[in-house]
Every structure is written in C-alpha cells, then in structure tokens.
Specification:
Oligomer: single chain
Strand order of the largest sheet: 1-8-7-6
Shape: globular
Strand content: 35-45%
Radius of gyration: 18 Å
Helix content: 10-25%
Order of helices and strands: HEEEEEEEE
C-alpha cells in the first residue's frame, strides 16, 4: 500500500487532535468528578457555585459560554513575580489572553500564576493549575449572572 506524504500528514494531524481532545475530556471529567463529589480535598480546594473547569495546552484556547469568551493560553515558564500583597515569589506562570466576543475593546493579555483570581466583565476566572511539564493550564470560570427579564 502506498501512502502519500500529504495523506500521512493529515492522518497525523487528525490523530493528534483526537488525542488532545480525549486527554482534555478525560482531565476535565476526572477533575469534575473528584471536586464535585466532595466540598474540599486535602488542600482545601472547592468548586465554587456555577464554576466550570476548563483545560488547555500551550497555545490552545478555551471557549466559554458558546463563544462569548475565549481564553488563550501560552508562554508557560518559571519566573519571579510580585504577589497581590507586594511579596516577591518564584513559580510557573502562563500568559492568558481574554477575548470578549461582544466587547472586543476589552480584550486583554496578562501573566498569571496558580491560585490567582481575575474578575473582568462579570466573569470570575480562577487559575487552578499551571503545569509546566505538560504545558497545561486549568482554569475555573464563573460566568456573569444571567440578566432577568421582567
């Protein structure tokens, strides 16, 4: 059987995409079942009300609420940074790009660390884990409250 180079490349790309999708689904399912079955684990982590967990690998995107918010992930490395209380710390950080479909003027890029919480445009975005070895970032997102119609 003769396989053309283009077909082989397409097969490899499809296999990689399938593998990444399966890994993300498995990771999210494991996190959801672990954290939603108990309020707290040994480290005191708990899932907040209406919070959903999302994971992305380096240069990946997370799509929230049917594309109202996209969270780009990349540039994962260790560095020294200043905490909210003014103290210096060293740890793994990631670049986060926030893209708002309904308000593109609010798009923003920032460097984040594990445990950090960002509140913007009604969203609460919590950085649950940054894993340098797997180039993976896990975030918890609480969407803005639904507007009530009279």
């Amino acid at each position: 059987m003769i396989v053309k180079k283009k077909e082989l490349i397409q097969f490899k790309q499809t296999l990689l995409l399938f593998t990444l999708t399966v890994v993300n689904i498995w990771l999210l399912a494991a996190c959801q079942s672990q954290w939603s079955n108990s309020k707290e684990d040994k480290e005191g982590f708990h899932l907040m009300k209406n919070e959903r967990l999302y994971a992305a690998q380096d240069t990946g995107q997370i799509i929230v609420e049917g594309d109202k918010l996209r969270v780009g992930v990349g540039n994962i490395w260790g560095e020294t940074y200043t905490l909210e209380n003014g103290e210096k710390s060293y740890g793994v950080r990631a670049g986060l790009w926030l893209f708002f479909k309904e308000n593109p003027d609010s798009d923003v890029h920032m460097r984040v660390h594990e445990g950090q919480t960002i509140e913007t445009k009604g969203y609460v975005i919590r950085i649950v884990e940054i894993n340098k070895n797997d180039s993976m970032v896990i975030v918890g997102v609480i969407p803005p409250p639904k507007k009530r119609t009279p």
